[in-house]
Design brief:
With about 130 residues, the protein is α+β, with helices and mostly antiparallel strands. Helix content is about 45%, strand content about 30%. The protein has 5 helices and 5 strands. It has a 5-stranded antiparallel beta sheet. The two termini are about 20 Å apart.
Length: about 130
């Protein structure tokens, strides 16, 4: 089982960020965090890196269900979605596969929640 779902798209980096954010919203996700890896590496290490952002996506009703079911699951939240510029005009989007990350947690109820979130994130990637 792959630990992510991905798709490569034509468009500008900012256009794809907007599209990803909109598709996540349609599935009930909001963006809690946004890490600009390019900016951070430049600032902290003076390294030039490609455009690369990590979006911390959260679906509050499912996050609540997961936390009630397994109180340590917060170590795996939020669901990360990356957007990276592969080349000029080509951008890859990848989302974590919650089923892969939840395999180490032995809690059937949590597995059911992970299946539902997996379906939602797959749907986001497919609709891009």
């Amino acid at each position: 089982m792959k630990y992510y779902f991905n798709k490569t798209l034509k468009g500008t980096f900012d256009q794809i960020i907007d599209k990803v954010t909109e598709e996540l919203k349609k599935e009930g996700f909001g963006i809690l965090t946004e890490i600009d890896v390019k900016e951070t590496l430049k600032k902290k290490l003076d390294i030039d890196f490609k455009k690369y952002k990590i979006l911390g996506a959260c679906n509050p009703p499912y996050a609540h269900k997961a936390l009630v079911t397994e109180d340590k699951i917060g170590t795996m939240l939020p669901c990360n979605v990356i957007v990276q510029e592969i080349s000029k005009g080509m951008v890859e989007v990848a989302a974590v596969n919650p089923m892969a990350s939840m395999q180490s947690v032995e809690n059937k109820a949590l597995g059911d929640i992970a299946q539902e979130i997996t379906a939602k994130l797959k749907n986001v990637i497919e609709k891009l």
